[in-house]
# Entry
Amino acid sequence: MKLALFILLTVFQTAAPPDTVIVEPDEAVIEVGGTLQFTARAYDAAGKVIEGTTVRWYVRDEETLTIDYVGLATAHRPGEVRVIAVIQGKPGFATVTVPQLPPASITAELPVKAVLTGTAVPLDIEVRSRLDEVLAEAEVEYTSSDKNIATVDAEGHVVGHQPGATTITVEAGAATTTVEVEVAENPAVSYQIAQNRISVRTGDVVRFRVLAQTAGGENVTGLRPAWMVGHHGAEIDTEGADGVFVAEEAGEYSVTAVIGPEITRTITVDVEPRQYNARLVKVGRGPISTHHSGDTWAFEGVDGRDYAYIGTFMHDWMKAWDVTDPANPVLTDSLQVDARRINDVKIHPNNRLAIITREGASNRRNGMVLLDLSTPAHPTILSEYTETVTGGVHNVWIDGENELVYACHNGTSELHIIDIADPKNPKEVGRWGLDKQGKTLHDVIVQDGYAYLSYWDDGVITLDVGAGTHGGTPTEPAFVSQYKYPIGNTHVAWRYGRYLFVGDEIFPDNWDADSPIEASGYIHVIDMTDMDNPVEVARYEVPEAGAHNVWAEDDKLYVGYYQGGLRVLDISGELRGDLYRQGREMARLKTTDAFTTVPNWPMTWGAQIFKGNIFTSDLNSGLWIARLIEGALVP
# Structure
């Protein structure tokens, strides 16, 4: 749950709460390092002040602003923050803006040894504040000590005019630096654009480069052209010497390289529509229409038969299905535990142990339950672990090689590492969490020695838990990097190849599980080539729906896209731009039928590929088994 909702649920309620709470001032600007006193008053329905009340103060983003128990706020870094005052369970709000700091330092480099006459080369500029924040929008000014040798345009491109040397001064506010520039005679007499693809479809990433040659046919290096595309429907980014092009719409595009003020070259690119002969077909159903369903996991039991276990939402039963015949799932058992939510179900790689998570236990001792799968059709409780995770566990990941469970604890919003070598007696052996208040850890996945933590408003955190690159071990994680985006709600992550697929989860206010939920949020595609510096390069956003859980396999991303159903996305090759608009979506299936808690409203949970089939649960209708059919259907 979001922090504000958590606050409202946990604050002591009186018999007669206030009608309104007014915070003064309701809007404020505080400079970094500055303070401001806030006050809050409660009013009854008649508009009369309620005296003798206690105010509890909160902020969601304590990196930007903190507030003490008397309402004194202190600004720490630029941003916008909502201040919350709660009186007898009733909230009041104020908005604080902490302005951006001025430039404190600037660095500038020329990416080539020398600028050739008649060409333009962009300076690599980075402006930072005194808090070491990059100021991407800072205004920068340039001057050349000898304009006959070289000048600099407003975008920071150094234009060479004649051979020689000059000094470029770069200024941003009070910050200044200089760059020594050498201009050399340009020996090139011909220029042409080369590309790395002959056939181009929408969604294909094409890299263009200018080939320059002398009169004798020798290659000339050191060019850094600016790249442009003729009209909408495609985009091109300048990356070093390359122009990186991708089209969302089929058509003919003019790609231009601006090599210098009077040197340009253009090439025409024909882009064909991206097409798939693929469809998702329903294989089987395990309908659950008496209550809402949670996560599912399919596996081969020790008896050689196949099973799918499904958790529940606002219910206390885990369902066990025999799916050996995926067209005809058979409910074999229901296991009851003390919980109001069994959100996550995970199976140990040895298929002899399962873990289900608990939230909302009547005795408030939640944690997780370990199941004996000796008879997988009828799992039994082997043990429980609640000692350090009584606040509830939302998601887990099992590291079978090291006999560890990585658990997301609601109470601390930290990653608790539980040793299950003796599954009857689990014990905590490690822990990792962000060093801040007001955090929410939602999910974790461990792949190839890295743990990816979906930390809601703090984005996705990567930890070394045995990869060895940053000194981490399975029980003593080491921080690698963090990537976050303004809207927050970072819900899930999955690593595939060079990319990390990160999903939002955004529900409207006052949503009701027994009614249609208009979820939103999408999949962010993060390039992890440099593990220390993740870069967002693409997105997969279904306009009419919200993303939930994901699975990647064989160059395909399978997404439970809530009311948008089960979706399959082609993630082959390099990814850039808007993958949905590019037509990379291969197939979809709406997971709703007559056996549902909410008529005509799918809420697809996620996807798991198991023995060629796709297993998913739907919040409203239970188990679904589907298959992706590529090519012609065979009768």
